[in-house]
Design goal:
The protein has 9 helices and 12 strands. With about 300 residues, the chain is an alpha+beta fold. The protein folds into 2 domains: about 1-205, Jelly Rolls, CATH 2.60.120; about 240-305, no CATH class. A hairpin with a 2-residue loop joins strand 3 and strand 4. The radius of gyration is 24 Å and the shape is globular. The two termini are about 35 Å apart. Mean pLDDT is about 60; it is low at about 65-75, about 90-110, about 140-160, about 205-210, about 250-265 and about 300-308.
């Protein structure tokens, strides 16, 4: 969440106090594609796999860091006693990873700025190395380089998702996840108006909205700005791969029956980018409209849809 680097230290401390530690076991889901999540999830310790359209996109891992000190026996004993005492206190929140905390504590206070700069450069180098490794053999379908984690404000944790989820995040092994509930975050924004103003500049980065005014169907229909904004906030984005079937869902499973028109209770899909081939029943061919591209609409009655 790069935008949180612009907020005050007090705001970050308030967020840290509002984090909830949750333990997830193997094969449990943190986020499910298409479902609205009321929290942001930070991976604190463990490994997860991120999937889109039922295809694995990438893995995120925050390994447990084990420290070994090469000191004299008395120093080792003091370090062990201090570490045991810290464990008994049971601190429930942390500002940074354990590695970062120990490095900062081992320095003099006058060198804090240099330590922060060193950590920032280390995280940047790690991210650049991950990107170089990812693109070395060419991008795999659905892989998004921009989704690679940067230096998160809470240390090594990776932001996994916020708002309606466009991916499914499953746990590979026993993992600790820090949850920031939306209600807590919204309350903190009200308590810190200056940070709210700073974050408002990054809203497109945090929750990108599709621009429906550029779509052909919207250019020929008189729609209010409120309706266009409603579409931007509620239309679900999905990733499809070559050979996948695109079948519009029945909105009856998402909306109450009293809000539905029985004659048209099928969702429509708009091709945002890519190329789609439409397969229809015999005798109902759509030639020359059997191939759709950006801006075209997939609706009910057209049979099956295939991404090519």
């Amino acid at each position: 969440m790069p935008c949180l680097r612009q907020v005050s230290e007090e705001f970050l401390q308030a967020i840290e106090k509002g984090l909830v530690h949750q333990l997830y076991f193997s094969e449990q889901c943190i986020l499910t594609e298409g479902q609205d999540s009321s929290f942001a999830a930070f991976l604190s310790d463990g490994e997860v796999v991120v999937e889109a359209a039922q295809r694995a996109v990438r893995r995120e891992e925050v390994p447990f860091v084990e420290f070994r000190f090469t000191m004299n026996p008395e120093a080792d004993s003091r370090a062990s006693m201090a570490e045991s005492e810290e464990g008994r206190r049971g601190q429930s929140h942390r500002r940074a990873s354990r590695k970062k905390s120990m490095v900062v504590e081992s320095r003099r206070s006058g060198e804090d700025v240099a330590v922060e700069s060193l950590i920032s450069l280390t995280n940047k180098a790690r991210t650049e190395a991950m990107i170089a490794e990812a693109v070395a053999g060419g991008l795999t379908p659905g892989y998004d380089v921009n989704a690679l984690p940067e230096a998160a404000p809470f240390g090594e944790e990776c932001l996994l998702g916020l708002g309606p989820s466009s991916v499914t995040v499953s746990v590979c092994k026993l993992s600790v996840v820090l949850l920031l509930h939306r209600a807590v975050f919204e309350q903190l924004l009200q308590d810190f108006p200056k940070d709210l103003a700073a974050l408002s500049r990054f809203q497109p980065e945090m929750l990108p909205k599709p621009n429906f005014q550029d779509l052909p169907i919207c250019q020929h229909v008189d729609m209010s700005n409120e309706l266009l904004d409603f579409f931007a906030r509620h239309v679900e984005r999905r990733i499809f791969f070559p050979g996948d079937n695109i079948e519009p869902d029945n909105v009856q499973i998402f909306l109450p029956k009293q809000l539905l028109n029985p004659a048209s209770n099928i969702t429509y899909a708009i091709v945002s980018s890519g190329h789609v081939r439409v397969k229809t029943p015999p005798g109902l061919e759509l030639a020359p409209f059997g191939h759709l591209s950006s801006g075209d609409i997939l609706g009910p009655g057209a049979g099956e849809f295939f991404r090519t």
